[in-house]
Amino acid sequence: MDSQTIHFVPATELAELFRTKKISPVEYMRLLLARIEELEPKLNAFAHLAADRAMEDAKKAEAALMSGTPIRRLHGVPATIKDLQLTKDMPTQNGSKIFAGHQPAEDAPVVSRLRDGGAIILGKTTMSEFGWTGVSRSPLTGITSNPWKLGYNAGASSAGAGAAAAAGLGPLHQGTDGAGSIRMPAHFCGVYGLKPSFGRVPHYPVPAGGDMTSHAGPMTRSVADAALMLEVMAGPHYLEYSSLEAGPANYLARLREGVRGKRFAYSPDLGVARVDPEVAELVKVAAARFAELGAIVEEVPIPWAKDGPELARFFWSASMTGLAQHLPKWEAEMDPGLVACIRQSEDIPVSCYMEMRRRKMDYVASIHRWFQDWDFLLTPSASVAAFPAEQLMPDNWQKHPWDWIVWAEFSYPFNMSWVPAASVPCGFTAAGLPVGLQIVGRRFDDLGVLQASAAFEQLQPWADKHPPV
Could you tell me what percent of the chain has a pLDDT over 90? Predict the structure, then answer.
């Protein structure tokens, strides 16, 4: 296997190559770190790279293999962690100068579980400041570039995870999703991203806006890698009060069960979104292909969507007001869009908040009622392909001090309703930029979303397509 091919070997195969001693974890790590050294100046995917620690762990993994010590599922396989998650041996900075150099005293549950599963933590990936936006830049780390076109948006807030996955900087990348922060980078970078059901993967510390933002999940180049990673990360945890009692299903073993007879609704715009025509056409063609798999596919109106935009903007701004405490000291060092987002909700009375929360609960109930008639919903993952990362909005879209959500209307309904949703690559624009198809399932049906994703992947593979970087 040549030194370029090896960087795109999926984790499921890499773990087996290690186990059978066909590839050395140490040699693989040397090649991977050399690739990161070469590409990181172009991509800026890492907020912190723990190269020395990763090499030490690779040597330990190799020694265990040679000694015949029992090994775990991800033995020697590299993984990255979003800069939002606590890491006791690496800084956790939230993409903000406010927390520059901050060193936690403990690991977040997902970090502990990946380590316990045998994974080697490469480092922390970049994110937008406090995860507030879908654009891949922050005051702390600057612009993270899309590997398909340098200087363009890689998506956010899990920006570095998406860029690293696409560029072959390791097979496994952990992201979080509060309003599309796994699915948008997957869409923009041409990789697979799954936002699991709320509570499937424990998220600690629980954010103040936790009932919308506490979704942690995998970002990978294959559905099988995401299934494996989810199995390792999922399950209840005593520090996450909303974590689901049930442990993970056998996602990987059941991945190929197909979607024959399943009912897929398709919506090109949810009735509320503006969508770039090129994106819309690629998604429409991809959605229709599920009929080739024996599924029932029907374009339908979405009756519950009309209240979504107002609710999303209200709660997204409200969720940021906890950061107002930092404004007196740090405002000049913060993302101006984040400051504008915080300011919008500073004076909202509690009575108004509670009335909007009541409306949100009605909105969520209507989504779950609708899903009684459908197994899955297909939509674009985002309205546009990548655009310059220094911009909050694409060209020819109306400008706003902070409202990036206008091109991401497909994300937040499924954060609010806690259902699983994934972005799968479904094609490229004429300019060679990736586009994602979103597959949404009923709550708790993470397995179904993975199976639908795997069925589409088999029909229209994407892992062999590598960015020019």
Answer: 93
Residue 217 token pair: 């999940």
Structural domains in the chain (count): 1
Among the listed residues 189, 85, 211, the one whose alpha carbon sits nearest the alpha carbon of residue 144: 189
pLDDT band for 277, please (50, 70, 90 cuts): very high
Q: 317 catalytic, yes or no?
A: no
Active-site choice (136, 157, 411, 423):
157
- Per-residue pLDDT at 205: 85
Calculate mean pLDDT across residues 234-247: 89
How far is it, in rounded angstroms, from Cα 438 to Cα 241?
28
Q: Tell which wins on pLDDT, 125 or 5.
A: 125
In contact, 182 and 44? CB cutoff 8 Å: no
- Establish whether 222 is a catalytic residue: no
Contact 43, 167 (CB under 8 A): yes
Report yes or no on 468 lying in a domain. Answer: no
Mean pLDDT, residues 1-10? 85
Strand, coil or helix: 165: helix
Structural domain that includes position 417: 5-459
Residues contacting 256, CB < 8 A, separation 6+: 451, 454, 458
The answer as to whether 441 is a domain residue is yes
Q: Is 145 a catalytic residue?
A: no
Q: Where are the beta strands (DSSP E) in 196-337?
A: 216-220, 263-266, 296-299
Q: Report yes or no: 299 and 267 within 8 Å, Cβ to Cβ.
A: yes
Which DSSP category does 206 fall into?
P
Residue tagged active-site, from 181, 197, 243, 267: 181
Whether residue 210 has pLDDT greater than 70:
no
Domain containing residue 58: CATH number: 3.90.1300.10
Rounded distance, CA 75 to CA 389, Å? 36
Q: Are 193 and 225 in contact (CB under 8 A)?
A: no
Task: Examine residue 282 and state whether it is found in any structural domain, yes or no.
Answer: yes
Helix (H) or strand (E) holding 151: strand 149-153
Please answer whether residues 420 and 446 qualify as being in contact, where contact means their C-beta atoms are separated by less than 8 angstroms.
Answer: yes
466 falls within a domain? no
Tokens for 428, please give them: 């490229």
